[in-house]
Amino acid sequence: MHTSGFFERQAQARRNTLVLIALFSIAVILITLVVDLLGYLITRDAEVTANFGTWLLSRQGILTSVAVVTIIGLGSLFRWIDLASGGARVANMVGARQLDPSGHDADERRLRNVVEEMAIASGVPVPDLYVMDNETAINAFVAGYNPGEAVMVVTHGTLTQLSRDELQGVVGHEFSHILNGDMRINVRLIAILAGILMIGQIGQFLMNTSFYPRGYSSSSRDSRGQGALIAAGLGLMVVGYIGLLFGRLIQAAISRQREMLADASAVQFTRNPEGIASALYRIGQSSGYFQHTRHASDMNHMCFSETVKISFTSWLASHPPLEDRIKAISPGMLARLRNRTRDDIPSPASEPRPDTAQRTRSFTDGLQGLTSPISGRSQTVSPDTRLSDTAGTLTQANESYAQTLLARLPANFRTLLYTRTGAVQFCYSLILHGMNAGERERAMAACESKGAHACQPEVIARFYPALDSLGSAIRLPALEMAMPALRKLDPYERRILEQQLDTLVRADQRVTLFEFAVLSFLKRHLLPEGARPDRVRYRKFAPVADSLATLLSLTARTATENAAAAEQCYQEAIAGFETRKGAMGALKQKVTAKDLAAALQQLRGLSPMLKPAVIDACGHCILKDGKVSVWEYEILRLVADQLDCPMPPLPASPE
Questions:
Q1: Please, what is the end-to-end C-alpha distance for the chain in angstroms?
Q2: Is the pLDDT of residue 3 over 50?
Q3: What are residue 265's phi and psi, to 5 degrees?
Q4: Rounded average pLDDT over 498-512
Q5: Are the C-beta atoms of 602 and 544 separated by less than 8 Å?
Q6: Per-residue CA distances from 60 to 31, 37, 54, 65, 203 (Å)
Q7: Residues forming the active site
Q8: Which H or E run contains 153?
């Protein structure tokens, strides 16, 4: 079975978690031994022990070891639970402010435009955006457990000091972490470091207690007790620094190579090496260090550049040196940036790029290689295309697609998407748009009045002109743009939205595939049951054979024009799976929404390395005639979204 880069990176991210656990275990063992040695040195005068090894196996030594492991374990566990809610909790931890999607600040809108372009181009929901208002340094990070619930946090310096091209380079770097599966291990590393540093924090507490006692006594017994407390606190603080050393080494081991990969990916995404290189150079000229958050050290491995100043940089830094990163982007780039600064020549990255005509042509050329967001017509795509190869990729053509798409959206349409009420009414408009006037009236009448969530015909109607003029392909990208506003709904409001949409969908006694896709997308990204991480339950196709048959039967029947063609397409699609052909069963003549939902739910439990085959099998049916219509692409996006696979716009066959 073929495997693509995205799924290999996802599998590698899971293996990195095992590496992280191994490094954590080694650090815990070494810290425990150091604390045991400290305990032995403090107590050996009071209790005669032959040697450290004997003390280690004594009751006192065993209790000390158990206490240390318990303290570290509890410290990590508490932070792990604290961060279970995902990226939003990490952003709140560092005091970041969530950007209002409907805000009018020019810098914030520029950031949102850049992020929306990359989200649409890569096929992921638009992340929630946060800014650290008190941090003037240039830095940024992403956090979350999967691309669908990612948040992006930038400092005030990033927002105000960078040009658009530089900002695009930084955002491209962070999107690489989203697509490569780095976010999950980054959040888990915060929890692990919290446990490792717990011993030092206890030592600091003991030192403070000994120097600032509640009462004063001059007795020799109290003086000896205070001295022992100081010695224990000082020793534990030393152990804390050792723990910090281990934490730094773990950060460096996990993070360094991924930062170089993210830099290279940003260049690939933007096709503008000067953008990210100039941003790195600006950090070198000023700083990327956090000044106002006490979690700067915890976040160091997650950020675009170092957040704290580190001694022994070559060993302990979680990022390669800035100069090395710039040279890796382009060997002569550092010299050019230095010369430009010395000669006081404005950087092209800080101005509108002069080759406007060439960029316009590249936009047009790029759009010819993608399904059109405007016409809604079928586009020619090579039947040999492996759609799983496009998963988790972001190309200049995709970026051009997104830029052109956003440029065609009316301003009032986008403004409505950025408000909670507008985003809710847009969801209703997606369902109602395909109905005639009588069906719309009956569907809205079937919905109960739910206050702010009641159908508002005058607001819903404001979306119809854009949906008419831009075609069906605008529907899913616009829904992704509405996600930041929809995420601001509280749990009760989200459930009401689901119920209202379900009522609208069932008002005409049928559920179309697009309606099912909208409901599934919103349940996946807004409701608690959809946010639960998927455990790997199946490492072979045999246990999910019936679910595969359900999905491929539906795909084959919708992608072909008659029963014979559907049967042939289905047999070709199932032939590639490593299971007995008979176990898949015959083509299913009827697949209900309930059947499809159950099938997708089971397929979510597949190992990441098996998911490319599912996407390619669906792709085989869709691409069999060499054409991809908008609704066929929406089928693919539905499957990919349920499998946690970002699916960008489809490539066209070469001329």
A1: 28
A2: no
A3: -65, -40
A4: 88
A5: yes
A6: 17, 12, 10, 9, 19
A7: 174
A8: strand 151-155
List of residues 6+ apart from 39 with CB closer than 8 A: 55, 60, 61, 64
pLDDT in tens, 392-437: 777 777 888 888 888 888 989 999 999 999 999 999 999 999 888 8
**Segment 142-190, tens digit of pLDDT:** 999 888 889 999 999 999 999 999 999 999 999 989 888 788 888 888 8
Average pLDDT over residues 68-82: 89
Token pair, residue 373, equals: 């967001």
Chain length of the chain: 655
State the DSSP H helix or E strand holding residue 131, giving kind and residue range, or none if neither: strand 128-132
Q: How far apart are CA 392 and CA 297, in angstroms?
A: 30
The CA–CA distances, whole Å, from 275 to 147, 268, 282, 355, 594 equal 24, 12, 11, 15, 48
Structure tokens at 499: 């119920």
The burial of 257, by beta-carbon neighbours within 10 Å (0-12 exposed, 13-18 middle, 19 or more buried), is given as exposed
What Å distances lie between residue 642 and 58, 84, 215, 519, 530, CA to CA?
Answer: 54, 21, 62, 12, 9
C-alpha gyration radius of the chain: 28
Name the residue ranges covered by the structural domains of the chain. Answer: 1-352
**Residue-wise DSSP of 471-535:** -GGGHHHHHHHHHHHHTTS-HHHHHHHHHHHHHHHHTTT---HHHHHHHHHHHHHHSHHHHSPPP
User: Cβ–Cβ contacts within 10 Å for residue 185, how many?
Assistant: 21
Strands 140-143 and 151-155: antiparallel
Closest CA relative to residue 463, chosen from 474, 447, 454: 474
Looking at the DSSP bridge assignments, the partners of residue 379 are 628
Mean pLDDT of 483-511: 89
Query: H-helix or E-strand containing 98?
Result: strand 97-98
**Tokens, residue 625:** 């005639």
Decide: residue 455, CB within 10 A, 0-12 exposed, 13-18 middle, 19+ buried: buried
| pLDDT digit string, tens, across residues 247-288 | 778 877 778 778 888 888 888 888 888 999 999 999 988 888
What pLDDT band is residue 305 in, cutting at 50, 70 and 90? very high
**Which of these, 269, 262, 77, 275, lies nearest to 162 by C-alpha position?**
275
Q: Which residues pair with 285 in a beta bridge?
A: none
Q: What is the pLDDT of residues 46-55, one digit of tens each?
A: 666 668 888 8
Q: Which two tokens stand for residue 354?
A: 């002069």
Question: What is the CA 159 to chain-centroid distance, rounded?
Answer: 20
Among the residues of 212-270, which ranges form H helices?
220-270
Residues 287, 318: Cα–Cα separation, whole Å? 16
Asked if 584 and 567 touch (Cβ cutoff 8 Å), the reply is: no
* The two structure tokens encoding residue 495: 């459930």
Q: Which residue type does 289 have?
A: Y
Six-digit token pair at 198? 């717990």
Q: Which residue has the tokens 């019936």?
A: 546
CA atoms of 464 and 119, how far apart (whole Å): 24
Q: How far apart are CA 164 and CA 106, in angstroms?
A: 12
Q: Residue 370: pLDDT above 60?
A: no
- Between the alpha carbon of residue 143 and those of residues 184, 216, 640, the distances in Å are 7, 48, 21
The DSSP bridge partners found for residue 140 are 154
Tokens (6 digits) for 24:
């954590």
Task: With beta carbons less than 8 A apart as the criterion, state whether 306 and 317 touch.
Answer: yes
Judged by DSSP in three states, 599 sits in helix
- What is the pairing mode between strands 379-380 and 140-143? unpaired
CA 36 – CA 236 distance, rounded (Å): 11
Reported confidence tier of residue 470, pLDDT bands at 50, 70, 90: confident
Q: Which of 468, 467, 446, 466 is nearest to 455 (CA)?
A: 446
